[in-house]
Amino acid sequence: MTRRALVPLIALMGCAAALSAEAQGVSTPRDQQGTRSANGGDSGFVTPEFYPAPPGLPRGSLSDGVTGLIVRDLSEARDFCIRSPRVEYVIDCLSEEYGRIAEKMPRGDYEAAKSAVAEAARGLGALAGANADPRLPRARLKRPGGAATPPLTPVRSTAVNRLNAAAAEIVEEAETVLLRAAERSDRRRAHYQRIAAAIGSTKVLLRAL
Predict the structure, then answer these.
(1) Nearest-angstrom CA–CA distance, 182 and 191
(2) Integer CA distances (angstroms), 137 to 47, 116, 192, in order
(3) How many CA atoms does the CB half-sphere of 112 hold within 13 Å?
(4) Which one of 32, 91, 101, 207 is most buried, by most CB atoms within 10 A?
(5) What's the pLDDT tens digit per position in 118-131?
């Protein structure tokens, strides 16, 4: 059975009558229970509302710890959205999760990375909005930590392959921006390359959907 032939989000929640066009229902991504992140840790978006300052340094200073949190969140966002019960919701899910991560990222040494992730979030959101499927409801997905996303916009089922390819191009542009920024600074090279790799892995999966 293909992804598009899976039971609709509404039926998965057993609340078809309650889920309106403004998506009051919540759906749980497939295989969410008992999963672990790609980095081996428990999945769950458990980082704080903002990435803390490294010990003894101002917030925004490069550190392996902060970079690791950003990479983990990007990887978990990828895994969470790709497991969406319907592929039509993946693009706007990525937009929402990238936006959350960008908001948490500090400025300072991470300014260019923050901007690249935020721009990818805006591009993905615009793509989903411009290609919304009026036949499908907006829907919330339940994050591993328990909170639900805002209502997500599904893209047109008939164009999902083309739109996923377009989304992959948006993500690839963010990856390219990060790699170029890495080349301009020896000090931040390794950090930006790690963030770029996390973004790039999303691109690969989008093209495989």
Answers:
(1) 8
(2) 30, 30, 37
(3) 20
(4) 91
(5) 999 999 999 999 99
Considering only 13-17, 38-42, 155-159, which range has the smallest mean pLDDT? 13-17
140-191 pLDDT tens trace: 999 887 789 999 999 999 999 999 999 999 999 999 999 999 999 899 999 9
4 secondary structure, DSSP code: G
Integer Cα distance of 126 and 116 in angstroms: 15
- What is the distance between the alpha carbons of residues 191 and 143, in angstroms, rounded to a whole number? 27
What pTM, to 2 d.p., does this model score? Answer: 0.80
CB 141, CB 19: distance < 8 Å: no
In DSSP terms, which residues pair with 106 in a beta bridge?
none
Indicate the range of 28-37, 46-55, 72-81, 168-177 predicted with least confidence.
28-37
- What lies within 8 Å, CB to CB, of 195 at 6+ separation is 67, 70, 71, 74, 113, 117, 178
- List, as one string, the DSSP characters of 117-182: HHHHHHHHHHHHHHTB-TTS--BEEB-TTSPBPSPBPPBPGGGHHHHHHHHHHHHHHHHHHHHHHH
